[in-house]
Structure formats: structure tokens, C-alpha cells
Amino acid sequence: MAILKGNRASITAERFAQGYTWSEYLQVIQQNKERFAESYAETRVNPDDCAFFAQVPGRVGGKLRVVALAEDWCPDVYTNLPILIKIAECSPDIEVRIFPRDKNLDIMDAYLNRGQFRSIPTFVFLDSEFNELGVWIERPQAANELRERLMQELAQQSGLSEEEARAERSRRLREAYRTGLRQETIREIRQVLEAALAARAD
């Protein structure tokens, strides 16, 4: 049995195979199918980043595997999971399996955000022997900062209900992903893997 670094969770080849592929996941999701499709269609991985991701599997034993914890109702999932899928398309040796969070809490609770929160999506990167390489959680830092600014700005606008403010915040965040935040997700995932490769080289 292969154990993730630090014994945080146990992932075997058999358990990994139980996750959904992207095409399977699209068949079972119940909510936000159009949002998933929109994010996927709008995501572009530039040639330099794609070349980097394509060479990672060979440097970690031949395969890069990714456990993606997700739920289809979550805006961060339907925004960022398709970005991961586009990254995986840079190489046939990058395999993603998607696990519904609430049915896989043993994995989720090994990767709590700040040790407290079951944040999704959570992407766990594994080498060919299922050893942990790194983890990426929820959304890029730039999106966190924008989200906080929007919450403060919209709270100060009179006449907006809480529901209206939430809808406006979501609209502006979607627009921000269209105009640059998707690249921040790609950049941060690349940083996670660059750090893993550097640690292996030491």
C-alpha cells in the first residue's frame, strides 16, 4: 500500500481508480453543468506552462496523478476544476480522478484548509507510486483578495439585499477569472509542482 507523505491519507491504486474521470464526472453532476462547460471552454494554458506540466510526469516516475475533491454546487469547483483538467490535457501521463467531497471525508479531513475547513476544490498531486508531491486548495490568493474587497465594497452599497450582493460578487469574480484569475490558478499549481521537483532534486 502506498501512503501519502506524512501519512496524511492512504491512497492506493485501487482507491484512486474509484474516482471519476472528467468525462464521467460530467455525466453525474446535477448542478452547474453550464458553468463547468463555460470555465473549460474559456481556459487556455499557455505553451510555456503546458511544456512545464508535460515534463513533470517523467520526473516523478512516469505518471502524475491528481486527486480532486469537489462538489458540483460550489463556485470554486466549477471555476477551478476545469482549469486543472486543461492542465492535465498537456500530457497523457497526467491522470485526474474526481472524488465527491462528502462521500470521501477520510481524504478530505486529511487536507483541511488551515486545519479547519473542508474547502473545495482540493487538488492532491501524487507521483507514480502515490507519494504526495503537493496540495492546492480552493482558489488562488488573488481571488481571495478580490473576494474580500468585493465583500467590503458591496456591504457599503445601500439598497442591496444579501442575496443581491452575493450574486453581484459572483458575477464580478467570474469576470475576473475571464480576465486573468485563471492564469493565477495555473501559476499557483505550477508553483506547487516546481517546489516538489526542487525538493526531490535536493
Could you characterize what this model shows?
The protein is α+β, with helices and mostly antiparallel strands. It has one domain (5-201): Glutaredoxin, CATH 3.40.30. It is 53% helix and 12% strand. The chain has a four-stranded mixed β-sheet. Helix 4 packs across helix 8 (162-201), helix 5 runs parallel beside helix 8 and helix 7 (141-155) runs antiparallel to helix 8 (162-201). The radius of gyration is 17 Å and the shape is globular. It starts with 12 loop residues before the first helix and ends with a helix. The model is unreliable at 1-7 (pLDDT under 50).
C-alpha geometry: globular
> Order of helices and strands, N to C?
HHHHEHEHEEHH
What's the mean pLDDT score? 92
* Poorly predicted regions: 1-7
Regarding quaternary structure, what we see is single chain
| CATH level 1 class label | Alpha Beta
DSSP E strands, number: 4
Instruction: Name the structural class.
Output: alpha+beta
Looking at the structure, the CATH topology is: Glutaredoxin
How would you write the strand order of the largest sheet? 2-1-3-4
Distance between the termini: 26 Å
Q: Which architecture name does CATH use?
A: 3-Layer(aba) Sandwich
The level of helicity is: 40-55%
**What's the number of helices?**
8
Rg, Cα atoms, Å: 17 Å
Describe the largest sheet.
4 strands, mixed
Percentage of β-strand residues: 5-15%
CATH superfamily: Glutaredoxin
Count of spatially separate domains: 1
